[in-house]
Specification:
heterodimer; A: mainly alpha; 14 helices; flat; B: mainly alpha; 11 helices; disordered N terminus
Chain lengths: ~300, ~300
């Protein structure tokens, strides 16, 4: 057990190292980082100062070490546009992203789980086919298209919902639906396949042989077990949602992390862009590690296997 | 020649004629993709106007069937008076070129690294797989935005960026296949026959994973096109005034609030049709060519 956890932690650290190295190298290799780290139109003296300040005259490995050092100590630099530390900006926006992700997740589970169960119980039936079309659409429609069509209907034509901004629950509906849509499809697909697997298992057969009513077999015996992988995916997806909402937050002007990233691009505010990407990567690596450890705690087969 | 028989086919191999007669051939999606491809090739002939030049006097004209529309601009005009139909037609070219080259780029890098990593094992495998793991930790769009912010927007850069972001998905799947192929008789016989590692990878392994690579590529086409559109939509993709569908939607956003629906809905439908078609074709190919990938 201890060995397993240690190895998983080791892998995660390695992933973090490679990710930071990638980001560091891309910034350095693709040109002069001063052009990214300094506002356009900076004077030659400023550029020279910055070169010295960031140690760009030093060998690459020294530069990399400094890069890591500043990240570990939480110094992600100053935003060019807002003139405040990037980390402050990030934490200012994070609650909004969490709120949006939580609501979108709730929606996606409310749609995805029941429809997935229905599809699995009646394989090849109406619900299964409707579900197939739904997942195909969910996975194929770009979120900005859904978002803009929703605005067109509910704001422009019907005048029911505000098109952008935040503050009230009404503001949350459209962004949450747009973000949740894709994940609802993914959750439905997993619920369906997980449910099918459980329904084919021995203990479900036994429950049926015992003469239990079908509703009880599906609702109590099968459903609970089929839910485990879905909840795991949902946990990972919650973190993913925070980090992929850039398009949705841009369409609806929702002031979260994604919007921060978009502003970072439009204002050519490179420290902001870099911080959002690096923190996002760290979050996802961390949540994957947590899931692996939890699984190993629950299921001894996993930790004994390798 | 039993040595090179593809081992993937588990059921009766069907003759080529039966291949096309099988039920569920996605005729409509294939026709849509072919149409988009033809439109892309003959954009110069088909487009009634120059897609990049408009006249401000003609801005925000609605499509012909709506009040105020005219036959001169069948699908209306945008915020600077450019013809929407012409822009959609040339946008097909951008999507096709970016989509196909990016998939080929990601596919060839990913397939080669997947084969090398899976067959050679050892440190090569470790390096490729650890990099793959680390890169997959970043959401594709975020990673693409980051790269686009560094190298700046241009059509060529987008292809390069999408290739860099998506090769990892190929590498992982192909490596998995190679690991199982490696154990098969024909590879062992090739080793016994004295083939070099390079010959085995190139002549014996590659032909056996090409099916998976094609299936994956078709499915990836949809993903790549959506990502390109999202990047263009966010302003880090194909730079204006080039007519890319994602960019058209971003431009159309200004007019949306006053009901100029055609500027966002029409390019959106084009993206949707192309992505849906690619996905449906990919799904069919997956079942047809590669039973192993079915549960992917």
């Amino acid at each position: 057990m201890k060995n397993y956890i240690l190895r998983r932690v080791g892998y995660s650290l390695l992933s973090l190292f490679l990710l930071s190295l990638t980001i560091f190298l891309f910034v350095r290799v693709t040109g002069d980082p001063t052009s990214l780290l300094l506002e356009p139109g900076a004077s030659p003296e400023d550029i020279e100062n910055l070169r010295r300040q960031f140690g760009l005259d030093q060998p690459l490995w020294v530069q990399y070490w400094r890069f890591i050092e500043s990240f570990v100590t939480g110094d992600l630099g100053l935003s060019f546009y807002y003139r405040t530390p990037v980390l402050d900006l990030y934490f200012e926006r994070l609650p909004n992203s969490l709120l949006l992700a939580a609501v979108a997740m709730a929606l996606s589970l409310l749609i995805g789980i029941p429809s997935g169960v229905l599809a699995a119980v009646r394989v090849g039936g109406f619900w299964d086919n409707a579900g197939k079309i739904f997942t195909l659409l969910g996975l194929s429609l770009p979120s900005f298209f859904i978002g803009l069509v929703l605005i067109l209907f509910f704001t422009v034509y019907l005048g029911w919902l505000p098109s952008s901004g935040s503050g009230t629950a009404w503001h949350l509906i459209m962004p949450a639906v747009t973000l949740g849509w894709y994940f609802a499809a993914a959750h439905m697909r997993l619920t369906r396949s997980s449910m099918l697997e459980v329904l084919g298992s021995e203990y479900v057969k036994l429950a049926r042989l015992k003469g239990l009513p079908e509703a009880l077999v599906i609702g109590k015996h099968a459903f609970k077990n089929a839910l485990i992988p879905v909840i795991t995916l949902a946990g990972i997806n919650l973190v993913v949602m925070i980090n992929v909402a850039v398009v949705v937050e841009t369409v609806f002007a929702w002031p979260g992390i994604g919007r921060l990233l978009y502003e970072g691009i439009s204002f050519r505010d490179f420290p902001v862009v870099q911080a959002v990407v690096v923190i996002g990567g760290c979050m996802i690596i961390l949540v994957n590690l947590l899931v692996d450890i939890l699984y190993a705690l629950i299921d001894p087969r996993i930790r004994l296997e390798s | 020649m039993t040595v090179t028989t593809p081992p993937i086919v588990a059921t009766e191999p069907s003759p080529p004629a039966a291949f096309w007669r099988t039920q569920g051939f996605p005729l409509v999606p294939v026709l849509i993709l072919l149409t988009i491809a033809l439109v892309a090739v003959f954009a110069d002939v088909l487009a009634p106007y120059d897609p990049q030049i408009g006249s401000l006097a003609l801005r925000y004209r609605p499509p012909a069937w709506q009040e105020g529309g005219s036959m001169a601009h069948l699908l209306g005009t945008d915020h600077v008076g450019r013809d929407v139909l012409s822009r959609l037609i040339f946008g097909a070219r951008v999507s096709m070129i970016v989509g196909i080259t990016a998939v080929l780029f990601a596919g060839s890098v990913g397939t080669v690294l997947g084969i090398v990593s899976g067959y050679l094992g050892g440190w090569a495998d470790q390096v490729v797989m650890r990099v793959t793991d680390a890169w997959l930790a970043l959401p594709a769009l975020t990673f693409a935005i980051f790269l686009a912010a560094i190298v700046g927007p241009s059509e060529l850069n987008i292809i390069f960026i999408l290739g860099l972001v998506y090769w990892t998905r190929y590498a992982r799947v192909i490596r998995g296949e190679v690991l199982s192929l490696k154990q098969r008789e024909f590879v062992r016989l090739a080793i016994v026959a004295g083939c070099s590692k390079r010959v085995i990878m190139w002549r014996h392994i590659l032909p056996n994973v090409i099916n998976s690579a094609v299936v994956l590529g078709t499915l990836m086409l949809g993903v790549v096109i959506v990502t390109e559109a999202a990047l263009s939509f966010l302003g880090v993709g194909v730079p204006p005034p080039k007519p890319a569908w994602g960019l058209m939607m971003a431009d159309g956003k200004q007019g949306l609030m006053v009901g100029h629906w055609w500027l966002t809905v029409l390019p959106g439908i084009c993206i949707m049709l192309m992505v849906l078609s690619a996905n449906l074709l990919g799904d069919w190919l997956r079942v047809k060519l590669d039973p192993q990938l079915r549960q992917l």
